[in-house]
Amino acid sequence: MKFNSIAKLGGMVLLSALVLAGCGSKSSQSGSKKQEFTWQETSNLPTMDLSKATDQVSAETLNATNEGLLKMSTNAKVTPGVAKNYTVSKDGKTWTFNLRHSKWSDGTPVTAKDFVYSWQRTLAPKTASQYAYIFDHIKNATKVNAGKAPASSLGVKADGDYKLVVTLNRPQSYFKYLVANAEFFPQKQSAVKKYGSKYGTQSKYMVYNGPFKLTGWNGTNDSWTMVKNSNYWNKKNIKLDKMKIQVVKDPSTVLNQYNTDKLNAITLTGSQQVSHYKNNKDYKSYLNASTFYLEMNQKKDPVLRNANIRKALSLSIDRKQLTDKVLADGSVPARGLVAAKMAYRNGKDYADQAEVKSADSHNLTEAKKLWAKGLKETGKKSVALNLLADDTPAGKNTTEFLQSQLTKLPGLKITNQNLPFKTRLQRSQDGNFDLVISAWIADFPDPISFLSLFTSDNSYNNGEWKSAKYDTLVKNAEGKDALNAGKRWDDMVQAQKVLMNNQGIVPLYQQSTPKLINSKVKGIQFFPTAPEWDWSKVSIK
């Protein structure tokens, strides 16, 4: 997820600051304490149309207001959602989900047909979903998405109202994780038809089947609210009455509110805040399965098609200085595309086995040699590039640092452009950039969640780096080697090495989120992968 994501996400991932308030608020008429708090985001909510969402803020909000067949849980596990149980055939190709009797927020039943419609809508060519690729293991999904087969041929069928049968064209051991993600949530066809082009653009143009309902979101505002959904099947275990989301970008404002007891939890930003509070009993640091990286537009800029130019850009960056001195929030230098401490085989971390040190190291002397060689090969004496990133504090600090690092290469001029997240995201998707700081949080705990991004035809490959060898390795991991865990792992290890040896992207850092959380707040669930946060078990002591 792009950071959102971070997406989804999948994200593009942004720093997400938690701001809690309302503890011990006035009693309700029943005499019980109101369970309310406020969560801070650093970016607006782009969309609630799950067929079109690509960012972390949308993923978090969709996860709170809607529910899929299964739910993500801690320690890379899944728990029942709309599906009370499921079975998998011996060949791994048929998944059967038995649905519970649950309801939409308007009181109508959630049925298997709502899942069939949702998946068909996401794959419809006219929807132009960037997440269509994640359905590719489902029978005929690729053909349906390309307009070469009817939606009815998709391998998902409703067997009555409460049984969903999914047929895959090849085994996919991590499919259980996919159906816990927002892209696989149900959608009510009558609501989509009723609201038309307005669907998902404001809170009133939606129906919900999750723990909360979204209210007060007009599509562009800096605050919105989620209230307990009285029609949610598990409402008796939802403690919160209401949670308010506020977009707050200034870290000093957030810290001041925390120190004056107006906010109960925040995300710390920058070295001064983290160093001052890292020994505080309320301090917590969460390492995300997320990687920030530099994409280079190899379609728009011929000079960036030169491998020596790309390698020179990478070698000129001191990642240790970036994480320790500039970000100073617990983030660590990236050792490739795939995040560390996410996927293991035989006790070995994928990030260790797939690392190409020359692609994530700092060596300015070697960088200048490769730069000179690249300039000669491209017939250039100087190069001017725009560096695009978000307008968040972390985004601005990172671009300023990268500008200072990259311009140590003779003849290179870097112009920074820090834009609102939604604008930056659109420009990335449109290919309207030279260099862009992108980020991804894994949708599920498997390396393929990262690796699939940079196949030649993936819609998230905004820089349009291409490698036939890379495509084949990813294809093998997803196809002929899917049931052989050892071969599949080797395919994925070699794929990242191809990407890094060619410097298809420039890995920067793996994000950690430092927080101060008041002890009154209980039950916040954090996942290293998307959707990252789950508020369904939160209560205020």
Automatic annotation (TrEMBL):
<feature type="signal peptide">
    <location>
        <begin position="1"/>
        <end position="21"/>
    </location>
</feature>
<dbReference type="GO" id="GO:0030288">
    <property type="term" value="C:outer membrane-bounded periplasmic space"/>
</dbReference>
<feature type="domain" description="Solute-binding protein family 5">
    <location>
        <begin position="77"/>
        <end position="461"/>
    </location>
</feature>
<keyword id="KW-0653">Protein transport</keyword>
<dbReference type="Pfam" id="PF00496">
    <property type="entry name" value="SBP_bac_5"/>
</dbReference>
<comment type="similarity">
    <text>Belongs to the bacterial solute-binding protein 5 family.</text>
</comment>
<keyword id="KW-0732">Signal</keyword>
<keyword id="KW-0813">Transport</keyword>
<protein>
    <submittedName>
        <fullName>Peptide ABC superfamily ATP binding cassette transporter, binding protein</fullName>
    </submittedName>
</protein>
<dbReference type="GO" id="GO:1904680">
    <property type="term" value="F:peptide transmembrane transporter activity"/>
</dbReference>
<dbReference type="GO" id="GO:0043190">
    <property type="term" value="C:ATP-binding cassette (ABC) transporter complex"/>
</dbReference>
<dbReference type="InterPro" id="IPR030678">
    <property type="entry name" value="Peptide/Ni-bd"/>
</dbReference>
<keyword id="KW-0571">Peptide transport</keyword>
<dbReference type="InterPro" id="IPR039424">
    <property type="entry name" value="SBP_5"/>
</dbReference>
<dbReference type="GO" id="GO:0015833">
    <property type="term" value="P:peptide transport"/>
</dbReference>
<dbReference type="InterPro" id="IPR000914">
    <property type="entry name" value="SBP_5_dom"/>
</dbReference>
